[in-house]
Amino acid sequence: MTETNGYFQNDNEKEINVLNLQSLEAEAEKIIPKGGFGYIAGGSEDNWTLKENTEAFNHVQIVPHVLSNVEDPQTDTSIFGINVKTPIMMSPAAAQGLAHAKGEIDTAAGIAKAGALMSQSTYSSTSIADTMKAGNGAPQFFQLYMSKDWNFNENLLKEAKEAGAKAIILTSDATVDGYRESDVVNDFQFPIPMANLTKFSEGDGKGKGIGEIYAAAAQKIGPDDIKRIKDIAGLPVIVKGVQSPEDALLAIGAGADGIYVSNHGGRQLNGGPASFDVLSDVAKAVNHRVPIIFDSGIRRGSHVFKALASGADLVALARPIIYGLALGGADGVYSVVEHLNDEFKTTMQLAGTKTIEDVKNSKLLKK
Amino acid sequence: MTETNGYFQNDNEKEINVLNLQSLEAEAEKIIPKGGFGYIAGGSEDNWTLKENTEAFNHVQIVPHVLSNVEDPQTDTSIFGINVKTPIMMSPAAAQGLAHAKGEIDTAAGIAKAGALMSQSTYSSTSIADTMKAGNGAPQFFQLYMSKDWNFNENLLKEAKEAGAKAIILTSDATVDGYRESDVVNDFQFPIPMANLTKFSEGDGKGKGIGEIYAAAAQKIGPDDIKRIKDIAGLPVIVKGVQSPEDALLAIGAGADGIYVSNHGGRQLNGGPASFDVLSDVAKAVNHRVPIIFDSGIRRGSHVFKALASGADLVALARPIIYGLALGGADGVYSVVEHLNDEFKTTMQLAGTKTIEDVKNSKLLKK
Amino acid sequence: MTETNGYFQNDNEKEINVLNLQSLEAEAEKIIPKGGFGYIAGGSEDNWTLKENTEAFNHVQIVPHVLSNVEDPQTDTSIFGINVKTPIMMSPAAAQGLAHAKGEIDTAAGIAKAGALMSQSTYSSTSIADTMKAGNGAPQFFQLYMSKDWNFNENLLKEAKEAGAKAIILTSDATVDGYRESDVVNDFQFPIPMANLTKFSEGDGKGKGIGEIYAAAAQKIGPDDIKRIKDIAGLPVIVKGVQSPEDALLAIGAGADGIYVSNHGGRQLNGGPASFDVLSDVAKAVNHRVPIIFDSGIRRGSHVFKALASGADLVALARPIIYGLALGGADGVYSVVEHLNDEFKTTMQLAGTKTIEDVKNSKLLKK
Amino acid sequence: MTETNGYFQNDNEKEINVLNLQSLEAEAEKIIPKGGFGYIAGGSEDNWTLKENTEAFNHVQIVPHVLSNVEDPQTDTSIFGINVKTPIMMSPAAAQGLAHAKGEIDTAAGIAKAGALMSQSTYSSTSIADTMKAGNGAPQFFQLYMSKDWNFNENLLKEAKEAGAKAIILTSDATVDGYRESDVVNDFQFPIPMANLTKFSEGDGKGKGIGEIYAAAAQKIGPDDIKRIKDIAGLPVIVKGVQSPEDALLAIGAGADGIYVSNHGGRQLNGGPASFDVLSDVAKAVNHRVPIIFDSGIRRGSHVFKALASGADLVALARPIIYGLALGGADGVYSVVEHLNDEFKTTMQLAGTKTIEDVKNSKLLKK
């Protein structure tokens, strides 16, 4: 245990047994302090969209194909020419120091060990360069909560570029904080600083609620910002939070190099559709012009399969990986990704698919 | 506490913490006497329509639009040229003295403080003029339960006009009382008088059940009554309780100046559709000829958004506001409306809308 | 209490408070011996069809029409030229002595008091003539479980005709007993005799299970039996148990004077549709050539309305009325019918309908 | 009780009371050791497909036809010219020694007594010849988990042929083990040997988990294997695990003599459709060219009816029969099949069908 400002952080470092990703939540709840756990686990309003995110995978079914003559399914794939061992990626998520003393340092290390792609949040507990270093050369993306202060934005983008980030994820669905009741119930303020704020802004985030943090960010985000960020960073820009074909086309028209279909894990707008329920329509509109990352609701190997078969190139998740971080540090993170990838490989073999390309070409059934 | 005829009324006067509107019901149940609470909270028959009213908002989803370049959403709007700070309005609701010693006096004050529109019920605990005065110049509508006795109707309409009411709401869906089991279980009779009955009729309502009260009202209400009421009041007439395109057109053809889509909060006909489920069809028929008010089931900011995007110009609610009244008097009422408007503003920003007009032009998704 | 063969029968004679028809079941369970209660309440297999019967009324909604200028709704109607005060009818149901010492005698008296139509089962606890007499001139139908023994059939039909029955209901959906688990769990055999068996067959039914009783009845029932029964009885014949347009047309083509849409209250075939879900298709096929009676699932005034609006001329039910019989004898029966008719009148008024003809012409909504 | 390697097996030999097939699970859980019970009862991942398998039968309804003039329904039918008394068949299921000391010996005897068709699993606790002998001349099929080792395959197929098996079932949906959480939770390894492994392979399966067992089997199974197996066995080959029209046509094109629609009782791919939900589309594609066997989810007589009416020629099940085996040995097995066949006969009679051909020609309703 590490104590920071009266907040107790785990410092577990071990591989963990993962029965399934859902079961990790109750285990993590026992060891993450209440406010931090509520911040990580909670959604907005009555959590309808949060629950629907996972439920929606039951709206379609995988048609298994037998006599396919396949064995030993391969999960390696690539995005922007970057090779990864698995299409499972770490979603950008703030303040992972809430779950573990080492925060994103350990997440990056565990993700790297799994051969997966890491993404860092602007509101990380650890700095861009430190987190990148922990990944030991493994690919990482940097997520930008665009600030009203363009000096801040430029500093972050430059550090990301210099540290070796491969792309910028521009979050577009969080121009104000969703109404997250668990934070209200717990009267939650961040007990620990955010490294990028400490380094490049006046405050360090500590003692603030997520509402205050987001208030410093830009509310007005428009298509022109994509180009501006691309120019500063000199990296591909992926627009995160897209939930409609119209927005996907708008973003691509404005220069986006990737589309990230997400509803922020049900933490922002409640009463919107499950992220999975809009994926295939967005993918049809995108029509392979740029890659698609998908998150919000993935908990099972069969979900990974269904998302890829609906048009995603990579699938991302955060909560279960953060629970793995709390329970086992870098090795816990690794255990979670490995478990999910194992479930996914089982699904691939049983569905009669050998490669990620085969999965993407699978037809789902709506019954 | 104020005691009237053995009935204990709260006299709380304070702003309250509102986690969400649904959570207020259990808090209010602790402090409103059982019979009064049952009268306020109950629906008819097995409450199917009552429950469906809120559930129906999940039948469609908000498609959030990112990269919209908006900030600081504005909720001000207008109806009949009257400006209000929010599209959220107080539904007409009887006997608010059941919840608080000051009854509608405090409701009107709290609604005025929120910059919202107040409506008074014929069966109010306080008089038209007193309630209007409490609003301190803020706009109010008067709701008429049309009596068989036209002297009674004329007296009410004249007092409303003189006191400054801006429109008359003619309730058309309560020509007999719905079968409300909670009132039967509690053997509920009104323990406190109704000011307008005291003033203009023979009895004051005290000691009567809602069935007896409604029996004094007219059962036969027809299109011609709209014109008659308009002539007497010299005010716009809004027909409340409309649930079909046919009835909307009938009312407009007979001179109605507004349509109020409602199923009386699930308190009248059970086994009819959720109010929200019929809104868009009614709105298509009305086609902007007159304004539309909507109530029945609104509990969340996302519900306000969905109702406006389905054709409503204003949305109304009563139960949660009455719970706010019980818990905090005028300031409690204010707290509830402010909370709901805050949830709504969050939804507006996350959906990429800046004005009420933007919200109305939003397309919803059916998944 | 009356004790017969160790079976304790109530002899309550009083009007009862009916909160709603569903709530009667728990009250009746307290006073009807376990085996008898299980026989009355149970359905077949896992009760899917039994539950769906009532749930199905939520598949469509009543569109209330306001400004209809109606008051004082009238529930009187007629079938085969017989006037009744309500479209609510007693379904034929066996062995009502299980619920009350007076059995069908009291049911007939209570139904007559309510101005409703009574139907008697072949397997009644009381004789055709005695039950008819208890009705004191009020209209009754006689239901035939057609026996393999045509002497038995003839004796019954003649007694029915002589006693004044107005029509014969030929049950066609019970050529073998449904698999009713509650009877198996309770190892249920009829503890009391069946009057018609006592009079016209070798055994009296006592000590037998429903399977044995049904085994004495004909398994093979065909279109030709309709004519044969008509000829013997000289009365209109209504075919009960019809659930498809094809069967309705077959029965009418073979001479049926009425169609009785029913799935035997979910007691026979499980895994078939809710009775209400097939009503409108059957009604379309029948196209007013003969009257339609409907049962299976009716518990609310809104259900009565929906069934009539879907093509029924009369609606029938048994279980809740038998519970009323157990709780209050003839007056209990009366209380139940009156309560349901009151709920129905409330629905009529709120829907803007004045007559049964108006109800039949109402359009329902599918949302 | 018989104890093998610390694992306690029942040796009950008696007919049992079967209320319904679902109720057997809780009874069996009391007497089968935890690990063995978990192996038998469990499905994969979160059991969605397992539950949906049975739930799916409610997606369509049986339209009962009255006035059909039928009695005494006959359940006898045939497949490949083999006559059976019932269309209900034993699914191939591994390691029935987990449930009973005599394992498949007793299952075969009970199935034979019921006049049904037995199928043996490659991973049986008892040998092909012994199990066949226990059936005393009654028809049996042999199921092949195709090994990587073709000597093993040939040995099995030859023993099956010599022992008198009538067909080979080639399982194609288990090229890797589904992720079965109950086995993980129980850390389950087979405590008892598998007779065919003992006889023809290096290990006997004891002490291994199902994952290890499946790993010895072939992962690559293709259309050509059908022909190869046919040639070795000289028997018809049925491909098991088909869930799509495409795969059915592929298998038939490659020489399959029968199609076995199944999702392995929800034990393999989770997130695929209920087996029943794909049956009718597969049947349309097969178009009577070869017979269809169906399993996964059958628990009721009405399910048997619906599966046959959707295109199956035989329906199979395993879990409830294995529970009967645990509770009563051969006679327990017999009791379960008899009970299910009795429920099915009741359904046949109530639906107005006399023969299996009538059932197959019945139209189902989708409401």
TrEMBL record, chains A, B, C, D:
Active site: 264 (proton acceptor)
Record: residues binding FMN: 92-94, 121, 143, 171, 240, 262, 295-299
Any one Gene Ontology molecular-function term assigned to this protein's record: FMN binding
Cofactor(s), names only, from the UniProt record: FMN
Binding-site residues, glyoxylate: 39, 145, 180, 264, 267
Residues of the FMN hydroxy acid dehydrogenase domain: 13-367
Reaction(s) catalysed by this chain's protein: (S)-lactate + O2 = pyruvate + H2O2; 2-hydroxyoctadecanoate + O2 = 2-oxooctadecanoate + H2O2; 2-hydroxyoctanoate + O2 = 2-oxooctanoate + H2O2; mandelate + O2 = phenylglyoxylate + H2O2
Keywords carried by this UniProt record: Flavoprotein, FMN, Oxidoreductase
This enzyme's EC code(s): 1.1.3.15
InterPro entries in UniProt: Aldolase_TIM (IPR013785), Alpha-hydoxy_acid_DH_FMN (IPR012133), FMN-dep_DH (IPR000262), FMN_HAD (IPR037396), FMN_hydac_DH_AS (IPR008259)
Highest taxon of source: Bacteria
CDD domains: LOX_like_FMN
Subunit structure: Homotetramer.
Family the UniProt entry places it in: Belongs to the FMN-dependent alpha-hydroxy acid dehydrogenase family.
PANTHER family associated with the record: 2-HYDROXYACID OXIDASE 1, S -2-HYDROXY-ACID OXIDASE-RELATED
Protein name: L-lactate oxidase
Source species of the chain: Companilactobacillus allii
